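call fold(seq) -> tokens
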Amino acid sequence: MKCLALTLALATALVVPALAQNAPPAPTATTTHTYVAAKPSDVLARSLIGLNITNPNRETIGEIEDLLISSDGKFSGYIVSVGGFLGMGERYVVVSPPSLRVNYSENDKKWTAEMDATKDNLKTAPEFKYEGKWAK
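ret:
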């Protein structure tokens, strides 16, 4: 019996350090997550995409097609479709965020977008193409 107890004790002494060596390493860096609360002044992208853009003369000059987000996560611009008819002859330009005034009317429950430009101004702006990594 003493021999059995001694053998068990010896086996345990040899196995425990081996188990300790296989233990997962303690984490060295912690991942932090940042969460934000939506503010009443924030806008959802789905509220803007497809929205007609008018000028101060109430002429429709384009439509918000998409939003451009930079690689660092910042809002870079509105992709605006201009010209064309039934999807033919349409071209796209990128408009800087300050160029477009987006408003929500609480009374009408409606979003509007306005820009101080004409359709011709947008037609002569540098073209954006949906190609490469931006292909539709």
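Residues 1-16 have pLDDT under 50 and may be disordered.
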